[in-house]
């Protein structure tokens, strides 16, 4: 490709709305242009990277036995009514009426369409398993689109759906996809982690997210540097930090703790380490009692004072799927005190006490005394108060926690979710009566998995992970071009033109994705453009170099300095660098 | 590809709603599945052909200097309000409000988005010309979707937009696209014609349509077998069939023609050839007079009796852009008679007389006498009635007409429109104030062209042109697979398995797009599947053939019979056939 026949448009400054580095650099490098809120045009330069991601995804999906098709973006509402998502899905779902007043959606995902397709065409277990995928523009009406392609409204996604005759088969399909994803993100050249994830609203029985590790990530990832273990903090198992409960050593005493409504203040005042204190979180759960009446259950969640509540874990406990923060009135009624002095010892009313696993093994601990300006010290389960109603893992993991796989401790980093594999089970097939005949001729619901990759999001994530002050540092596999040739003084030096064309043609012959910058820009602005755009390899063919020592310059985008080479050696050098990258 | 790892689903019968052969065959061959009215999934088999079309289109667009990008499907209404199409476009345009109640469209085309993009990035004539294209799913809410992918609501289109500094530059860009389209449709292996077209509602100054020739086409194409001349019947020039007006030979006579309201009856009754008769078409045009008042102008269009009115041509005459059929009242008032006996001689009121070019040169003709049951014979312009107010080409061409290029006569066939190139001019750039600075530093509107190809429609058109009783006859370039290998008796014959795998691997090594049918189907149903799907080349490796004479069979999809070959010769034979096709 010659730059004069391509479209390059760089900006010195990023527009004000670009808050994060990938958004700023994608706009500055001219990879995308904003058309509306969360809606972008992929400019020629950006589209090249999109296509490279798509190509790697397709190759690995095909290798893993998935079959590509293309479903329509527009879907009849009837299918969504069957699955129940017509009601469940919020305003992110673009719904519209056609000219005949029939309801449709612009699909944010395609579980319904593929389930409908498979139920009509797959009648027997002999036809299973099957896995269909597509690469397609999706639309989700995000309430606050931002961060460029990271949280856009229209975006390109690869979505795959597997259908198996049973749970065991589904797990095999799931593992194939998991492995394909590992290969894909490795080939993309990204530092990533596959992390155990919470299933979220899509439903199902197991899932992993694939996160690109980047400081600016929106998710906290718990990982073990010594093993493959990694999990989203929402799902990461937090083990008990006290392995078993010690015998009480202290007596229960009420301490005056004036105006000390925070554990840290109480700990300092009483000179007792924070890890001996309990934090009380009061929630209200709307439940239905034995008589079928709606009742509000007050829930007291007890955490070690240095820990944080994990609401996702809490929501999985029986009866606690939906909770809200308790009001001051709720608290006054249940504990006869104010927030800051609440504790599990003799509340005013019977409440449901949920103790984190660590808390359940603590002894001689400190907690609120249910009396303003007072705390108890030397509190012990059984002796001073009943055992908790529930003991469960309800806290966020913190760095330094023992790893759940028993292998040292965990660390926490931030990640950007770029892929997700789900074990859907029979959620959709049961709702949509999608069945096949099993070995005994009996109808059975398909056991499904679904597998998504955010194709355009990968561009943003790759940049968040790979940039410097000058611009993007593309991984070689997804750079818009692999190599750029920058001639300097070509207008007045025949040899510059000769060596430039020679190298360009040699690299083209070798199948290298090379761009020749024949725009005639001044060297400074030309180099700045390519550093901003982030092409990994650059060759400068300058009239001065050729005159002085007959040399041209190679420079990798991450190199500290250029390497001087004879013109006849440069093609081989570039090819060797490409091979190594 | 092995069939067992692919998805093949054929039907014996097409669904009832499939009215035309391409729709029937695409459904039966499992290329598409219907999801809703005019909305289809491209199944793996169909998607392969779609991708092959896309690939050829991309290659030729790139060669012609067009640059690929990808605009969003969802577009802000503001852009459509600027261009005026928000009001002009009918219910085919999918409009919706997002969650913040802002108006959007799902783009049926992208003139607005690309014009907005170019006006923001292109400031100088030095940056021109430029031509951007994309390949994308579009949505048009057709009132009556039908014919499968031929008139669907969601479809894949390649749309390109060129921007030039002046008319001459735009014509160069247009010609490049025209030539690229010629190459594309030739490479696709289709019998097609580039035809001069009417511009339709998109506006602009010149356009060509690309039609695949097929009996079932919706458009009449006028073409010259002896030259490149071709035009849509809406636009095809009809020359005067009488080169100059002869001197009157007859006197005007009023003839009693009882109950003969049709020219054919009058011609037979009077024993005067039909080509001597005029047909009168009465229309009403809503016009504005010199005082700015709305007035209804009655228009009498005169055609030779064997000709048909061309409304598109008529609508381009001054004051006649919008006309309607006259009512019986209009006619009674203007002609004091009933339809069937109307003529240009002494109407009751002054009417606008528009004579087709042929009519203007006729003499001694027959026409209605503006009196029920009477016609005139021996009528002559000037002598018996004033010269017509307007002489113009207002008729449809008929087969056998002299070609407008002077080269013999024209014929008429039916075509399916699969591509369209438009000279848009400054329609959008003026409406949207999209300007650049010219050589003198003055702002000028971009001069635009736009160029569309109906990617998915091409599949339907290719099938309408290429099918037989057994199924599809794909052109080699866009067949889902080039070659199918059908082993027979592989389960019980080691040699069948050996030769099959040998050939399969040999063809793969040569880069042939081959599918090996390892499903274990019975031969009859296996052959029927591949004839229906229309793979152009088939090799059958049968245990009987190998045992009897050591031969395997090659058969082209259009061949009358199979060719017997030694297993060691078959790969070379297939490669030769592929080269020849």
From TrEMBL, chains A, B:
Pfam families xrefs? HGTP_anticodon (PF03129), tRNA-synt_2b (PF00587), tRNA_edit (PF04073)
Give the record's GO biological process terms.
prolyl-tRNA aminoacylation
Q: Give the CC-aspect GO terms.
A: cytosol
Main enzyme class:
ligase
| InterPro entries in alphabetical order | aa-tRNA-synt_IIb (IPR002314), aa-tRNA-synth_II (IPR006195), aa-tRNA-synth_II/BPL/LPL (IPR045864), Anticodon-bd (IPR004154), Anticodon-bd_dom_sf (IPR036621), Pro-tRNA-ligase_IIa (IPR002316), Pro-tRNA-synth_IIa_bac-type (IPR004500), Pro-tRNA-Synthase_IIa_type1 (IPR023717)
Q: Where in the cell is it found?
A: Cytoplasm
Aminoacyl-transfer RNA synthetases class-II family profile domain ranges (all copies): 33-475
Q: What EC number(s) is this enzyme filed under?
A: 6.1.1.15
Q: What is its main location?
A: cytoplasm
Its Gene Ontology molecular function terms? aminoacyl-tRNA deacylase activity; ATP binding; proline-tRNA ligase activity
Which Gene3D superfamilies does the annotation name?
Anticodon-binding domain, Bira Bifunctional Protein, Domain 2, YbaK/aminoacyl-tRNA synthetase-associated domain
Family to which the UniProt record says this protein belongs: Belongs to the class-II aminoacyl-tRNA synthetase family. ProS type 1 subfamily.
Its UniProt domain note says: Consists of three domains: the N-terminal catalytic domain, the editing domain and the C-terminal anticodon-binding domain.
Q: What task does this protein carry out?
A: Catalyzes the attachment of proline to tRNA(Pro) in a two-step reaction: proline is first activated by ATP to form Pro-AMP and then transferred to the acceptor end of tRNA(Pro). As ProRS can inadvertently accommodate and process non-cognate amino acids such as alanine and cysteine, to avoid such errors it has two additional distinct editing activities against alanine. One activity is designated as 'pretransfer' editing and involves the tRNA(Pro)-independent hydrolysis of activated Ala-AMP.
Tell me the PANTHER family matching this sequence. Answer: MITOCHONDRIAL RIBOSOME PROTEIN L39/PROLYL-TRNA LIGASE FAMILY MEMBER, PROLINE--TRNA LIGASE
- Report what the protein is called: Proline--tRNA ligase
């Amino acid at each position: 490709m010659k730059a004069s026949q391509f479209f390059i448009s760089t900006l010195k400054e990023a527009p004000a709305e670009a808050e994060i580095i990938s958004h700023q650099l994608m706009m500055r490098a001219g990879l995308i242009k904003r058309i509306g809120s969360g809606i972008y045009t992929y400019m020629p330069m950006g589209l090249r990277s999109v296509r490279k991601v798509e190509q790697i995804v397709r190759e690995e999906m095909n290798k893993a036995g998935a079959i590509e098709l293309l479903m329509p973006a527009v879907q009849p509402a009837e299918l969504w009514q069957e699955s129940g998502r017509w009601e469940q899905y919020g305003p992110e779902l673009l719904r519209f009426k056609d000219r005949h007043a029939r309801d449709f959606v612009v699909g944010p995902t395609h579980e319904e369409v593929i389930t409908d397709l498979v139920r009509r065409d797959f009648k027997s277990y002999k036809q299973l398993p099957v896995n269909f995928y597509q690469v397609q523009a999706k639309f989700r009406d995000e309430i606050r689109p931002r961060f460029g392609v990271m949280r856009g409204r229209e975006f390109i996604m690869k979505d795959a759906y597997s259908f198996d005759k049973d749970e065991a088969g589904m797990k095999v399909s799931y593992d194939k996809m998991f492995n394909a994803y590992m290969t894909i993100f490795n080939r993309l050249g990204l530092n990533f982690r596959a992390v155990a994830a919470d299933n979220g609203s899509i439903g199902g029985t197991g899932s992993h997210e694939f996160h690109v590790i980047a400081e600016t990530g929106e998710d906290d990832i718990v990982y073990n540097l010594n093993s493959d273990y990694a999990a989203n903090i929402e799902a990461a198992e937090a083990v008990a930090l006290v392995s078993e409960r010690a015998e009480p050593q202290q007596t229960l005493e009420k301490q005056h703790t004036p105006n000390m409504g925070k554990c840290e203040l109480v700990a300092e005042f009483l000179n007792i380490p924070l890890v001996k204190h309990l934090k009380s979180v009061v929630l209200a759960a709307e439940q239905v009692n034995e008589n079928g009446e709606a009742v509000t259950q007050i829930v007291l969640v007890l955490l070690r004072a240095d820990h944080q509540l994990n609401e996702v874990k809490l929501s999985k406990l029986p009866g606690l799927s939906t909770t809200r923060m308790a009001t001051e009135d709720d608290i006054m009624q249940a504990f006869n005190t104010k927030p800051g002095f609440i504790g599990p010892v003799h509340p005013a009313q019977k409440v449901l006490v949920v103790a984190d696993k660590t808390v359940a093994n603590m002894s001689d601990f400190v907690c609120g005394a249910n009396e303003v300006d007072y705390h108890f010290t030397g509190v012990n389960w059984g002796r001073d108060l009943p055992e908790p109603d529930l003991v469960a893992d309800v806290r966020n993991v913190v760095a330094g926690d023992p790893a759940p796989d028993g292998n040292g401790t965990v660390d926490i980093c931030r990640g950007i979710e770029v892929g997700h594999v789900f074990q859907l089970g029979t959620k959709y097939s049961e709702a949509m009566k999608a069945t096949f005949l099993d070995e005994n001729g009996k109808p059975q619901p398909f056991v499904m998995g679904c597998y998504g990759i955010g194709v355009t999001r990968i561009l943003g994530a790759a940049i968040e992970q790979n940039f410097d002050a000058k611009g993007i540092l593309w991984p070689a596999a997804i750079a818009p071009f692999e190599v750029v040739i920058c001639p300097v003084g070509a207008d007045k030096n025949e040899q510059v033109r000769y060596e430039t064309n020679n190298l360009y043609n040699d690299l083209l012959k070798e199948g290298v994705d090379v761009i020749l910058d024949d725009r005639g820009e001044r060297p400074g602005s030309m180099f700045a453009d390519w550093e901003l755009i982030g092409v990994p390899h650059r060759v400068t063919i300058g009239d001065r170099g050729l005159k002085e020592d007959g040399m041209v310059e190679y420079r990798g985008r991450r190199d500290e300095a250029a390497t001087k080479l004879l013109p006849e050696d440069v093609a081989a050098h570039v090819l060797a660098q490409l091979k190594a990258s």
